[in-house]
Structures are given as C-alpha cells and as structure tokens.
Design a protein that fits this description.
The complex is a heterodimer. By secondary structure, chain A is an alpha/beta fold. Chain A folds into seven domains: 2-62; 76-160, Glutaredoxin (3-Layer(aba) Sandwich), CATH 3.40.30; 179-294, Glutaredoxin (3-Layer(aba) Sandwich); 321-531, NADH-ubiquinone oxidoreductase 51kDa subunit (Rossmann fold); 541-627, Ubiquitin-like (UB roll) (Roll), CATH 3.10.20; 630-716, NADH-ubiquinone oxidoreductase 51kDa subunit, iron-sulphur binding domain (de novo design (two linked rop proteins)); 730-784, Alpha-Beta Plaits, CATH 3.30.70. In chain A, α1 (2-18) packs across α3, α15 packs antiparallel against α16 and α26 runs antiparallel to α27. Chain A starts with a helix and ends with a strand. By secondary structure, chain B is of the alpha/beta class. Chain B has four domains: 2-75, Ubiquitin-like (UB roll), CATH 3.10.20.740; 101-181 and 365-399, Fumarate Reductase Iron-sulfur Protein, Chain B, domain 2, CATH 1.10.1060; 193-348, FAD/NAD(P)-binding domain (3-Layer(bba) Sandwich); 414-513, Alpha-Beta Plaits. Chain B has 19 helices and 15 strands. In chain B, the strands form four sheets. Chain B has a five-stranded mixed β-sheet, sandwiched between helices. The chains are: A alpha/beta, B alpha/beta. Chain A binds chain B through residues 41, 44-45, 54-60, 63-64, 471, 488, 492-493, 495-496, 641-650, 652-657, 660, 677, 681, 684, 687-690, and chain B through 41, 43-47, 49, 57-60, 63-65, 67, 82, 85-86, 89-90, 92-93, 429, 431-432, 454-455, 457, 460, 463-464, 468-481, 486-487.
C-alpha cells in the first residue's frame, strides 16, 4: 500500500511537470520509466485517472515504443548494439557470449541476481567502434566475445564511483597561456574513453601547474582514431594524438609543455593519479600512436571532404556560443532576419538545389514554399533527428557537435515559412545529443536567439525538445507527427502532406537535421557557391557515416557525386586487414548494396536509385569477402520486420514472410521455389505498403538478389560461401594446431577435445559456432568449412 | 468539384471525397475492410488499392482524396493481383475455420454445428430444415453413413467425437414420426422437366432438389420400387420401413416415378429430345449397353468435376455412375449439387460448376487450445444411443458436446467474401508455425477470437469514439501486434456498452455475435 502511495506521489509530480493532455503521454511514460526503471501498472492506471490520457491510449503507446518496459529489469542494463557495423563485426557472438556469461535461458533477459538485464538495441551510433556494448551510461567499443568478463569487471569498478560531470579543471589565472589541448567529446570519443583522458589531462595539468586551456570539441569525424587529443602549443603547429589512453597523457603533456618543477610535482602525485583514473589496464583498449595532421593518412582522410554541415570541426566547442559566433555563427540568421524576406530566403534555398538529407531527396525549397503558402495562425517546424538506420550516426554527431548550427538553420527556416513553434525530435538512444541541444537552447534563450522578438527583429520563435521512444518508423514524417501527438507511431496517408496539414492538424515543416545544418552556409556563402558543389541533380555536400570493414571509419562530409571508390579507397583507406572489397551497403534497411563492379558509381540521389541502393540517411557500411550477402539481407529484414509498425498488411505480414524465407536460406532449407516467392513478396511489399518503411524494406533483398544471386543459389545447395551462416558451417582444426589448448579453454561448451601438445578436435554435436576458438587461436588452426 | 477518371469513366466528386467514395457513387465497387464511415480512414487492410495511371503507383483508395485530373484504374490485372496478395497475406495469419471440419469433410457439406446448436436448443424442426438443405435422406443416412464427419470432429481430440450421424438420424426420425413432417417451400413451376434415370440415393436427392426448384423431376427405375443400392443393405441395419417413409416424403413433393422401366439406348435418344435435362444416376455401370454413348473411362462415365456435365450438353451424371463409392452420402451430396447446376442451367442457360466457396482452415487443435473450444460446450462424455437412436434428452445432451468450430460470421465476413471473389489461396504464404487460437466470450453474447483478427483497427476506433473506459487497443507492434483490452482486463470491462457495435462492425469473424445464426434463413 505504501508502495502504491509512493507511486502515486511520484506520478503526481510527473504529471505536474509534463502536463495532462493526451499529447503528454510519451514524456510522462519516459519520466515514469526513468524513475521506476519500468512502467508499473499502478502508475499507468493512475495516470489515466488523473489526466486526459485514456487506458487504451496509454497501453497502445507503451506497447508500441521499444523504449518502454512493462516489467522490472535488473539494476544495470547491458545494451548490445546490433547495428549494421556491429553486425558485420560479430555483435551476435558478443550478445550470445554475454548471455552465456550470465547463464540466461532463451526466455530470460535478466540474470539470477537481478543485477543485469541484457537487451539488443538497433544502433547506438558508434559504428566505428563496432561491436559496441553499452552498460548504463558507459559504452564499450571493440568488444569481443572473449572479453566479456573484462568488460564487466571494468564496469563493476566504475559503477560504484561517482560520475560527476563537472570537470575539476579550473580556469586559468594569469595571462601566460602556454597552449591549448583539444579533446573530442563526440559519442565515439566518449565511448572510447575520452572522458577518462580528459580527466587525466585535468589532473595532470592541475598537479603540474602548466597553463594551458583545455577545450572540448565536437566530433572531428575521425572516429577510427578515437580518442583524439590535439595539442596546440603556443605559436606552434598543432599535433594530433590518436587513440590516446589516460596513461599517455603525462608523456604527451611533458613533450610539449615544460612546467616549473614539473617532474617533482608529478612524482608526488603520480600514485594518486593512477588510482583515480587508471582503468585501461583492465579494459584493454587498442594500440595508441600519435599522428601528425600533416601525415598522409590524415590528409587523405580530410582532404577530399567539404565541411558544410560540419564546418569548423575539431575547432569549436559544441556548446560554446561565443566561439560559434566567432566562427560566423548566427551571421546567416542576422541576414535572414534583417535583410531577407521569407520569399527571398526560400528563393535562395531553391537556387542552391538543396534536397532533403533524410533520404528521399525532396527539394527543400519546394517543401518550404508549400509550408509558407499556408495561411494559418499556428505553424510548426520540426527538426527530424530520429535517426533510426542501424549504421548511421550523422544526425547524432551534428546534434552533439553543432547544436547551434542546427538551431540556426531551424530559425532561418522558421522565418522563411513563418512558423511559430519548433520541435527537435531526437531519438531516445542519443542521450548526449538531447543534453547538448537542451543546453544550447538555454543559452540561445538567454541570448535572445530564440523566444520573443529575436535579436530585435520582431520575429518570435520557440523551440522544444521531444524525445523519441524507440521506433524506427517515426523517422517517417507522418508517424513522427503521430508520435508527438501522443499516439502510436502509425504513418498516415499522404496527401495531405504535413506541410499542408501536420502536427495537431496545422501546417508543419519537417526537415532532417542535416538539411537544417546546411542552411546557414547557403545564406551566408550564397546559393551559387553551394550549388557549384556536387553533381547535376544533387547539390552540395552530404554527411556519411563510414563504418564496417574499413581502415579509417568515421564521419565524413563529401561533395555529392564523389564515387564509392573514392570514399572507400581514398578517404577510408581501403578494406581492413587486406581483405577483398565485396560491396558497400548504402542507406541501411531502406537501401541496397553497391558491388565491386559498380565501384565507380557516383553518390547522388539518382545514381544510387539506379543501381538499386538509396541515399537513405547516409550510412555507408563496407563489407568484405567474409560477409555473406544472404546474411546481410536477413539482417536488414529482421530489422525492418521488428520495426514495422504493423498497420498495413503488406508490411506487417510481408516483411515477416520474407524474413521466414530468408531464415530458411540461412539454415540451408531454402528452395528455388522459395527464391521465387521471396522475389514475389519483395515486389509486392514494395508496391503495396503504405509508407516508406514498407516500400523500401525489400530493397536489401532486391539489391542482393540483383548482384549476388549466386550466393542465394549456393545456400539452396547447402553452402554459405562466406562461412557466415552458422546453420551451414562447421568448425575444424587443421594440422597447424600446436596443441596449446587455448581454444579449449575459451570454448564455452567444452566442444573441443584436447590433449596438450597434440592436435585438438572439435566435437560437432557440442559446438555452438560461437567463433571463440577461431578468434583465440594463435596459429590459424581453426577453420570454417 | 473535382473531375477525375475512374475505369475510363468521367466522374465528378466533391473536394475531399476519397477515391473509394467517388468510385462507389459512380457504381464502381472497390473492396475495403478497414473503412467505415463512422471510424473514418484507417488505411490498414490494403485490399482497396487502385492504380494511378500517371505514375503507375498503387494507393489505398479508401483514404486518398480525389484530385483534379486523376486517371484511376480499379480492376486491371495488377490491381487484382495486389488484392489477391493482400488477402493471401492476411489469410496466412488468419487462424480460424469458416466452416467446421466436420462440415468441410462431409461429402454433402451438411451444416453440422448449426444442426447441433438447434438440437441443443430443442428446436428439432429447424434443425431438420438445416439438415435437409443438404441431405435429402437424413434418417436413412443416419443409419448407414460411415460418418467421415465424426472422424474429422475436433471433439475427438479431447475425448470422443460428437455423435453427429446419430443426431442427424434423430432429427430425421423426429420429423418422419411427427404429425406433419417438414415440407420445404417449393418454387413456382418452371415448366421444365428433368428425367432422372435411377432412383438410388443420388437420383432421389437430385429429384428432391429439382422439384423444390420448381422443375418437374421424373424418376425412371428399372426395379419394381425406388431405392437402388439402399435396398441391398442388411435389413437389420436399414429397415424397409425407413426407406419407404423417407422416399415417400420425396415423392410427396410431386416427383414422378416410373418403376420397372429400363431405359435403353433408343429411349435415351428420345429422352434427349423430350426432356430439358437428363440425370444419369444408374449406379455402377454394367458391362452392357448403359452409358448411352456417353464418354467413359475405366471407372465410369466422364463428367465435369464441378458441373457433372457429361459429353452431351444437357446430360449429367452423378453417384456410382461416375465412380463406385460405398458412401451413400457422397451420392446424396452429388444429387443436391447437380440439381443446383441444372437449376441454373435451366433458368439462365449458363453452365457453371457447383460453387466451391472459399473456406479458411487451420487443421488440428493444439492441446492448450482445448479449453477455448470447450468454453462453448459441455464436458460430459459421448452419449450412447439405443437401437431406436437418441432420446430427446440424450440428443440434446449430445448436441451440447459440439465445440462449434465454425465461424459465427460465415455470411458477412468480408475476408471470406473477397477471398472467394479473388480466388485467394490461404496456403500460399503459410508459415511453419501458426498462432494459437483463443476464444474470449463476452457475457452479452459476443465472442472474440484474436487469431481471426486482421488488425484493421475499426473496433479500436469505435470503442474510443464511444468513450469506453477501457475499450480495445493495439498491443505491441509489427507482426506481433494484437488487439486486446488494456491492462489485460476482461472483455466485459473493455466492451461495456459497445459490444454489439464492434461485433457488427468487425469485418471478419474475430468479433461476432454468438447467437446470431447467419446461415439459418439462407
């Protein structure tokens, strides 16, 4: 009873904060879950008694969004990312290994002690660190199935310690600044340990008394090198250090800055230092090496890029408003507010040739024009940051690293179409992005950049944040609107288009985050300059998340029309580990593969469609000879099938039936008839589905069938040429075996018969094909047949 | 006003009208399941797709407003295929039977569950009417039928099959022994005559149904009395009295009979001119003379599987003349079917097979599903019948053992209607596993069977419109989505004042009125 009263009190408080209207349901549910870790039935019933929210609405919504849990979970949540990049790098093995570690049965998600609950998540947006696991707020990159214990041990060490956000670094006194140290604080950097590095710098600097300014910068894009630390000694050229570990810091600092009595001080403090921050002796990261910005691979990585949305990257602190202003920030807004009419702004955007960066490529200027033509008192504007594609993280990076640029783009758009209220719709899996935007909005409000009479122009505009709750389909604009209105994310038939009739029935302009991020450049530099970049039909630059089997993954912004080969070979440095390039998957679950024979395909909307791929939101996942294309199709279909909202017949049932057939293929039970049915279903799901999710869901199948049909045929014959489909392979130990027993020690099911110093043997009946033996073998004696 | 073209017709429609509505006003019917005026546009079922010829794209006509200059096609091959495919996808997850297994295996296709329900209610007269729609000789078959229906009876999985055959005998006997046996309504005379050669079960049944349809049936029997092979059965099993009583009932409708008449080739040739149609129901063909020059194969006369038409246009063949079978019920069933085919032929000149109607099937019950099917039936064991058959009490008790596997909306279900129309194949996308079936019974006489639900959303919208406290809602998403009452409340809680509305509005048999017998007055 007391427990119930406590719940009621808590819910009352939440309702007070979030409101009583039907539209408040998702924020209320989020707050309840935040508080109780799940959604207690008592709480939900109470909400319905106290607000306009109805029983059917609350259950309909709570059961729709994957963020919500109806049952209590363990104290800590382990999220295994199964995004595309993680998938191709063995996320399933990691997931299975964690389950084995906790001895979970097929139905269980929480371990016996109720301490850990394991979940699969679509994409954490840290693709360059694949495979990625997140435990509560801590993200682990490059996790492998044999490192599970280390990871948990590390987490246990961290879990107790307070994770105070406030750095202990204090502002500099005195005028003699010896230089600047920049630390990347994008999600990839943080996940790879940049927070630890930052602490190490803070402590080292504090204990040494060196006078440098420490600066946090947003994502640099070189996610394959994280954490990145850039040191800029006074009046000298910057030196970039990659893959830095906390223990490297003292060396780095000592190299560039010479404090008085530095070594004595350090000696006194060195033990304390290690006690506080050393974690990587347990969590073994990757090799560290320093790179110079003039080095070839860095220039290769950066030189072909054109930063527009990511302008001044690695230079500006994401939340430092003054610094943004110092780098032409809000200049475009000033022009738009003072010198340009709405029509003129739209004209500029039209002339620039900018097209929607969310994937479909609808001309932005036309969309704005339709919205502007609606004569209503209230008009909404939404920034779509519901980046759901597994394998894409552009929106996350832009929101985290360039919050002001996105806001500026929104303000200019608002002025152009005469919108009255704006929303950021940001997906739930991006807590850092939400945090940054929230803070940025506060600073903007304080500086009269949003709110009443912006910069004295007479134009008023307010922006709120709306957090998604875990539904890929909400990236579709009509489903996104339904979600803000507090409904299940069911897409609606268009027309009417949101620009005519959207949120709460009012005209609503929805653009992708990246689209907004490019607006200020166009206004400032002119539409001509923008349209001079790119190809005939696709203008400007496009941000891509480059990941998968690539040497230099990361976030890149390249001119439209650049070829796949240029991106993979020149920017990305080619395929990892000397393997053979097979294809690059573009556009995630809505897109398709570009194979070797089309390596020189230029990347623009039309060319990609022609080869059966799609711009999508911009995930580029590189695949090598070890990747099975049937498995990839199966992977994407299981994603879309899981994310189908279930409204229309073709998508709800069609995706399931296609997935069932693909599953048959991966275990060698597919037939030629199944192949025909698969193509038939793919064709009809594409033609008959209601929204873009369903219409594009078959693309990964159609595209792999188009270029890799022989792999499907091989599966019909019971063979997986890449040795990926566990139903079709077996592990064998060859004569290279030196009898070291390492594999047997790692084997979770004791499926390796061993005698020290003799050739070992796999017991096939026991083998679960977890790949642990092959990974650990020092002499490549474990083979897949 | 908006001008558009639908199926080559110029149509004018108010702005904001849906394409579906505009087509309907012009008399062009487009199927739709998820749209109701009261609930508005939902656009979930996707059987209303039509084609926009300008871009070749298909779109949901129920929810898309008309626009100026649209050129729409509602019935080309691609559109038709889209509907068939949508239906087949829906059917792949539709676990439910249109007709109970007993009925679908019955060669005469008798509506057994309905018979049982009427017996259970004590309405034996109605029950007999239902039986006689398909079986002209219920008392006789009640004694001799090997009862394939009982082999298919789902109750057999729980304990023993319902004693269907003896129940049918019971209603037949009740009728024969009553003061005023059942008289079917007979149509006005058509002026057509049909010769039926042979008066065994097939010929008798054909005569019975042809006579009801207003055609003069004339039986020609070479023996000295009607009955054919029935007369060869052990009298202990099938007494002469029963045969006579039941055949007299048929003859009493005005069917003529000529006994001791052998129809040879010449007479047959005359028949061809004298009669509007001829039914050959002569039993297993003998080696001499008979099939009258009709095409044959090694088992008997060759006739169309559905229309029973032989190599001569207005000559039909049924019963053992086609293929020897020990099941009189098959012959009786064919007699009924050929009568329907001939009736259509005589009325319209159109020769069309007996309609094989779409029938959703899901096969065996799983153990965990028994309880749902038993909700609707008594659990006591199979009643035994004496030599005289069931007593009134035992018949009613036995009838209450029936689990009513049939659907309660066999006539109004749109899924069935469209599947029938578009020749949808339920098995096309069948998966390896099927959903489990459940029956939730609302005390106001509503049954909810989630496995028959197509997730159209009409009931969710309706309960919301009517401000039900709990109502129905979508639970989960994607393929796993279900319609249920929030917080797992009972169905009565969910449907406090809308139960009849949702049962009526549901386009399938998922939500249905329990006591409405759609097939009673067909």
């Amino acid at each position: 009873m007391n427990e119930q009263i406590a719940i009621y009190q808590e819910v009352d408080r939440i309702i007070e904060q979030k409101g009583r209207s039907k539209g408040s349901v998702i924020p209320i549910l989020q707050a309840i879950q935040q508080k109780f870790n799940y959604l207690p039935e008592d709480a939900l019933r109470y909400v319905c008694r106290k607000t306009d929210i109805t029983n059917d609405q609350i259950i309909g919504v709570a059961s729709f969004y994957s963020q919500f849990r109806m049952h209590p979970v363990g104290e800590h949540i382990i999220k295994v990312c199964v995004g595309t990049a993680c998938h191709v790098k063995g996320a399933d093995h990691v997931h299975d290994a964690i389950r084995r570690h906790f001895k979970l049965t097929a139905e269980e998600e929480t371990d016996a002690s109720r301490k850990y609950t394991i979940e699969r998540v679509a994409c954490l947006g840290c693709c360059t660190l694949a495979p990625v696991v997140q435990i509560d707020e801590i993200t682990y990159g490059h996790v492998s199935s044999d490192k599970i214990e280390n990871m948990l041990e590390d987490f246990e060490m961290h879990a107790g310690s307070s994770k105070s956000e406030k750095g202990i670094f204090r502002s500099m006194k005195g005028d003699h600044i010896q230089g600047e140290i920049r630390i990347g604080l994008g999600s990839c950097c943080v996940a790879s340990g940049s927070e630890e590095v930052k602490k190490a710098v803070e402590e080292t600097v504090e204990n040494s008394g060196i006078r440098v300014s420490l600066k946090n910068v947003g994502c640099v894009g070189m996610c394959h090198q994280v954490p990145l630390v850039e040191v800029i000694p006074h009046n000298q050229s910057p030196i970039l250090y990659a893959k830095v570990k906390p223990e490297d810091i003292q060396g780095i600092i000592a190299t560039h800055f010479k404090p008085p009595g530095y070594f004595n001080k350090l000696k006194n403090n060195i033990y304390r230092f290690f006690e506080n921050v050393q974690t990587s002796s347990v969590w073994e990261g990757v090799k560290q090496y320093s790179i110079d910005a003039r080095e070839k691979q860095v220039t290769d990585f950066l030189d072909q890029q054109i930063p527009i949305a990511t302008r001044y990257r690695g230079i500006i602190n994401p939340l430092d408003l003054n610094e943004y202003k110092a780098h032409q920030g809000f200049e475009a807004l000033k022009i738009a507010l003072a010198d340009l009419s709405g029509e003129q702004i739209i004209q500029h955007i039209k002339e620039s040739g900018l097209r929607g960066r969310g994937g479909a490529g609808f001309p932005t200027g036309i969309k704005w024009k339709i919205a502007a033509e609606q004569k209503t008192e209230v008009k909404y504007l939404i920034c779509n940051g519901d980046e759901g594609d597994p394998g894409a993280f552009m929106d996350r990076m832009l929101l985290e690293s360039y919050p002001y640029r996105v806001i500026e783009g929104m303000l200019i758009a608002a002025k152009a179409v005469n919108a009255t209220h704006g929303y950021f719709y940001i997906r739930a899996e991006y807590p850092l992005a939400v945090k940054r935007i929230r803070q940025a909005l506060i600073y903007c409000r304080e500086n009269n950049l949003i709110g009443e009479d912006i910069l004295g122009s007479g134009f008023s505009f307010e922006i709120d944040i709306y957090e998604g709750a875990g539904a890929f389909v909400c990236g579709e604009e009509s489903a996104l609107i339904a979600s803000i209105e507090g409904e299940r994310g069911f897409p609606r038939i268009r027309p009417p288009y949101p620009a005519e009739k959207g949120l709460w029935g009012m005209p609503t302009l929805i653009n992708n985050t990246e689209t907004f991020a490019q607006v200020s450049y166009i206004i400032l530099e002119g539409s001509e300059k923008f349209s001079s970049i790119g190809s005939a039909t696709s203008k400007g630059s496009k941000v891509f998340a480059l990941a998968g089997k690539i040497n230099r993954g990361g976030l890149i912004e390249v001119p439209m029309g650049i070829t796949v080969r240029q991106i993979v070979e020149d920017i990305g440095g080619g395929v990892q580990n000397g393997k053979k390039f097979k294809a690059v998957q573009i556009g995630g679950p809505s897109g398709g593969c570009v194979p070797m024979q089309l390596y020189d395909t230029p990347i623009d909307y039309e060319s990609l469609l022609k080869v059966g791929a799609m711009m999508g939101s911009g995930g580029l996942v590189v695949m090598d000879e070890d990747d099975c294309m049937v498995d990839i199709a199966h992977y994407f279909l299981s994603f879309t099938q899981h994310e189908s909202c279930g409204k229309c017949t073709f998508c709800r049932v069609g995706t399931k039936k296609m997935l069932d057939i693909l599953t048959k293929f991966t275990v060698g039970k597919g037939t030629l008839k199944d192949l025909d049915e698969l193509e038939y279903l793919a064709g009809w799901t594409k033609k008959g589905s209601l929204c873009g999710l369903g219409k594009s869901a078959p693309n990964p199948i159609l595209s792999t069938l188009r270029y890799f049909r022989e792999e499907y045929l091989a599966h019909i014959d019971g063979k997986c040429p890449s040795g990926k489909c566990t139903g079709l392979i077996r592990y064998e130990i060859n004569d290279l075996c030196i009898g070291c027993t390492l594999c047997a020690q790692k084997c979770p099911t004791e499926a390796i018969l061993f005698k020290p110093h003799h050739k070992h043997e796999v017991i096939h009946d026991l083998c679960i094909k977890c790949d642990a033996c092959r990974t650990v073998c020092p002499v490549d004696a474990v083979e897949i047949h | 006003m908006i001008n558009l073209t639908i199926d080559n017709r110029q149509i004018e429609a108010q702005e904001g009208t849906s394409v579906w509505q505009a087509a309907k006003s012009a008399g062009i019917d487009i199927p739709v399941m998820c749209y109701m005026e009261e609930t508005g546009h939902i656009a979930s079922c996707m059987v209303c797709l039509v084609k926009n010829t300008k871009n070749g794209q298909l779109f949901a006509s129920c929810s898309t407003p008309v626009s100026e200059g649209q050129i729409i096609v509602t019935n080309d091959e691609e559109v038709t295929e889209s509907r068939k495919t949508a239906l087949e996808l829906l059917l792949s997850e539709h676990v439910g039977d249109c007709e109970a297994p007993c009925q679908s295996v019955c060669p005469a296709h008798m509506n057994i569950p309905l018979m049982n329900r009427l017996i259970a209610k004590g309405d034996f007269a109605k029950s007999l009417e239902v039986v006689k729609r398909d079986i002209a000789l219920p008392s006789i078959l009640g004694l001799i039928c090997p009862a394939p229906c009982e082999a298919a009876c789902r109750r057999k999985q729980v304990d023993d099959a319902v004693s269907i055959c003896t129940l049918k005998r019971f209603v037949g006997d009740e009728d024969l022994n009553s003061v005023q046996p059942y008289r079917p309504k007979i149509s006005d005379p058509s002026g057509k005559t049909v010769a039926i050669i042979g008066s065994g079960p097939a010929g008798l049944a054909a005569a019975y149904y042809l006579q009801i349809k207003g055609h003069q049936a004339i039986l020609f029997e070479q023996a000295d009395r009607p009955g054919g092979t029935l007369l060869q059965i052990d009298k202990e099993i099938l007494p002469d009295d029963t045969i006579k009583l039941e055949i007299d009932e048929i003859l009493s409708l005005g069917v003529q009979i000529h006994v001791n008449e052998t129809i040879d080739k010449e007479r047959f040739a005359n028949f061809l001119k004298e009669f509007d149609a001829i039914v050959v129901a002569t039993g297993t063909p003998s080696t001499d003379g008979i099939p009258y020059g009709l095409a044959t194969n090694n088992v008997g006369i060759v006739a169309d599987k559905f229309s029973y038409q032989t190599s001569i246009r207005h000559v039909f063949a049924v019963g053992n003349a086609l293929r020897t079978s020990k099941m009189a019920v098959r012959s009786v069933g064919q007699g009924k079917e050929v009568a329907a085919v001939i009736d259509r032929y005589l009325n319209s000149g159109e020769m069309k097979g007996y309609p094989a109607r779409f029938n959703s099937k899901f096969g065996k019950l799983m153990t965990e599903e028994f309880i749902h099917y038993l909700k609707d039936s008594e659990t006591f064991p199979r009643q035994s019948a004496g030599k005289e058959g069931f007593t009134i009490d035992s018949a009613m008790m036995e009838a209450r053992r029936c689990m009513h596997c049939d659907c309660r909306k066999p006539e109004s279900c749109l899924l069935r209607e469209y599947s029938n129309h578009y020749l949808a194949d339920q098995k096309r996308f069948k998966g390896e596993e099927r959903k489990t079936v459940e029956k939730l019974i609302h005390r106001e006489g509503i049954v909810y069977e989630p496995s028959k639900c197509i997730k159209c959303g009409i009931c969710v919208q309706l309960t919301s419109n009517h401000r039900e406290e709990f109502g129905l809602t979508f639970i989960g998403r994607g393929f796993e989505v279900k319609i249920g009452v929030p917080f797992n409340e009972k169905i009565e809680q969910g449907l406090k004042n809308t139960s009849l509305d949702v049962a009526k509005a549901c386009p399938t048999g998922a939500l249905a009125m329990f006591n409405e017998e759609q097939q009673l007055n067909l």
